[in-house]
Amino acid sequence: MKQKAKARLEVRQASLSDIPGIVDLAARAYKDFVPYTAGEIRGQINNYPRGAFVAVLDDNIVGYCATMRISESIALSKHSWREITGGGFGSRHDPTGDWLYGYEMVVDAKARGTRIGRRLYEERRKLAEELELTGIAFGGRMPSYRRNRKKVTGPQDYIDKVVEGEIHDPVIRFQLANGFEPIGVLKQYLREDTRSMGHAAHMVWRNPYVDRDQPRKFRLPRGVESVRIATCQLQARAVKDFEEFIDNVRYFVEVAADYESDFVLFPELFTLMLLSPEEKELKPKDAITKLSEFTPRIRDCLSEMAMRYNINIIGGSHPTRTADGDIQNVAFVCLRDGAVHEQEKIHPTPNERYWWNIKGGDTIDTIPTDCGPIGVLICYDSEFPELARRLVDEGARIIFVPFCTDSRQGYLRVRYCAQARAIENQCFMVMSGNVGNLPNVHNMDIQYAQSCILTPCDFPFARDGIAAEATENVETLTISDVNLADLSWARAEGTVRNLADRRFDLYDIKWDVGEPHDKERPRAEPIGPGTPGGG
């Protein structure tokens, strides 16, 4: 009996593991354009997984398309590419939208004989038919426009002549052959597209299986997508050695796991207890060097606990020496499948910079978990709204905020900002802080915390936007269930829709993806003792 040969070509839904291949494909295909970042592709997939497809030929990604659902009023109105895609992340996806909008289609030039583009278009069409949507829209390139601009009176005249067969444009002809029709010009759609002189043909395909004069009103079911979260408000205490410290951490991990929590969050710099066995208080720089020596053991122990107790651990933060020799404040996120991720603190506080010479990180991205993408903002980072917006654009619905503050004022800076991030991004924010003191550890004289799980403020959530909170300054574990489906409903049909109502025609956030930044910051001496975190 002959063995069946393995299929060489596959078109399937894109996954996060495809991101490096997609980024590489786009960079090769769009040499004159600003390259995609991994974060943008991550957002496109996370925000609407069903709308992202890849074509794989002989184990190589040779095609990719990204699609989202939007309302007819947006799909058929004038717009630019950055406006409609939320800056390239696909974050304007509306699960109640009546139209599919295609905002990316890229095919490897070496694979064009295998009709990759047609196959990807067919996947979009099948999705629209399955969901009974009104149609598909997009802005199509017109790459022969610049060469032929003297033969026409403008972009609309150019499109008309291409449709009539008087001018050849390979992209528009391909789209016409696939059942799309132009309904106008999108001026300054994509400024980088010099061959199209920035313009695009506004193309639509209407679903022949749908017969209606008015757009269908889709409603998002109030489903249940429950996640149980535990936040540990940890008592700073003297320990005699590393093993005693880990035993304290393990206790709370085990309790959280016994309550079947999906996540447990520890505070920022919770590992400073490891300095307490020192015979005398170390100078700040000596202390941070000593603490960073524990990094491999911290990482290994947290990862082992995550797998053993079947729980995802957000390991607060720990001073870590990076490959370039700098000390950064890093959160180790240890997942129950054995994966370990890192998120550095982007904004060190004045105290961290002055006393410990801690440098800020350069990247912030979502972390994939079995409960969906999450984000981590370490203490002071929560006070910079651009960071939370970046994480939510990439698909995060839960953002964890480990913090370390000495006073109520410092704590409230973090708390109020975290609550604002929950409202403006329609996401859950989880805070965890230290309490107590460490007399033999510099900058850990006193601690103030009231750990909590914060929500948006709308009907599906707690009336005060607080799912749960601890008693202030008491060591405890606070646990609550949150429903991620409530976030989807609020974003699509809530009283206010902060994400959907952003004015991309007026403002946008552009991230610098060039060379690493000089991490040196002014090192003026901070006022008062404060803590390394400080809020």
TrEMBL record:
Q: Where is the composition biased (Basic and acidic residues)?
A: 515-524
Q: Identify the domain of life.
A: Bacteria
Q: Which part of the chain is the N-acetyltransferase domain?
A: 9-202
The UniProt keyword set, sorted, is:
Hydrolase
GO MF annotation list: acyltransferase activity, transferring groups other than amino-acyl groups; hydrolase activity
Which parts of the sequence are annotated with region: Disordered? 515-535
Which residue intervals define the domain CN hydrolase in the entry? 227-484
Is Hydrolase tagged as a keyword? yes
Q: Which Gene3D superfamilies match?
A: 3.40.630.30, Carbon-nitrogen hydrolase
Q: Fetch the InterPro entries from UniProt.
A: Acyl_CoA_acyltransferase, C-N_Hydrolase, C-N_Hydrolase_sf, GNAT_dom
Q: What PANTHER family does the database record attribute to this sequence?
A: HYDROLASE YHCX (PTHR23088:SF50), NITRILASE-RELATED (PTHR23088)
This protein is called Bifunctional GNAT family N-acetyltransferase/carbon-nitrogen hydrolase family protein
